[in-house]
Amino acid sequence: MPPSAQETPIDNGVTAPMSMSTLPQAGHQWQISLQGKVITITGANQGIGLGLAEVCLANAAVKVYSLDISDPGPEFAAMQKQYPNKLAYLHTDVTSEESVAKALDAVVETEGRFDGMIANAGMTRHQPALDFTMAQVEQLFKLNVFGAWNCATAAAKKFIKLKTKGAIVFTASMTSYRPNRAAPSAPYGATKAAVRNMTHTLAMEWAEHGIRVNSISPGFVKTALTYYVEKSPDWDTKMKYYGGMPRLALPQELGGAYVYLLSDTATYTTGIDIPIAGIVGAW
């Protein structure tokens, strides 16, 4: 007799039950698109987060919310004009569980759905390890690790309540793999290594709910915080001898990977990190 719909044969001839709850439904959208999806991005009032918002909107997201503690600036306002009624801002402190939960409640109350979270908010500080104070180290961990944790767990709780097979994408860093020679920061690299490791375990724990958890590890990206990198007097020499793309990435150049991981095309992609570092050789 053929196996039932709830069983699948394995190599030794024994059958094992197979849960159908996380499988795509009939008529699943296989095009890489965010059509109809509501996405939240922490720290999206500027920098990488705003660039990711632009790429999500360009790929048909119905609404993108920036959850940020700072006030939006002119670049954010310009994008709102480019995408009328599709980009919004909610004042959010990601280091506060209550603040994040309140923001997601507001998103669902307004939109009636919530599909994806990009836990992007973070900060860095580059200086020799022995020059760091414990207060500075704690500040980095509070935002980069505990803030990411708050966002991921709040999103997962909301997905489970809504019975949504949602996606969470962390912004990690190439410094989670190896030192940044150009601008060393041992505490920053440690925070991003924690985020990348957390990705794997949360993906394992939440897979039964159809919730996917992945991360992106950018290299140097052109933002207000990294303007000095290309101005370094030895930049051209590094490019000559280490190889790689001789420039910093635009924030939007990261967006394709995030869109893929948030999309329904990636329903079997979870627990991975995608490095995006065209100048990886210069690290």
UniProtKB/TrEMBL annotation:
Belongs to the short-chain dehydrogenases/reductases (SDR) family. One of its GO terms (molecular function) is oxidoreductase activity, acting on the CH-OH group of donors, NAD or NADP as acceptor. This is Putative NADP-dependent mannitol dehydrogenase. The lineage of its organism: Eukaryota, Fungi, Dikarya, Ascomycota, Pezizomycotina. It holds the Pfam family adh_short_C2. The gene is PIG8. One of its GO terms (biological process) is abscisic acid biosynthetic process. PANTHER family: BENZIL REDUCTASE (PTHR43008), CHAIN DEHYDROGENASE, PUTATIVE (AFU_ORTHOLOGUE AFUA_4G08710)-RELATED (PTHR43008:SF4). SUPFAM superfamilies: NAD(P)-binding Rossmann-fold domains. Keywords: NADP, Oxidoreductase. Residues 1-21 are annotated as: Disordered. The keyword Isomerase does not apply.
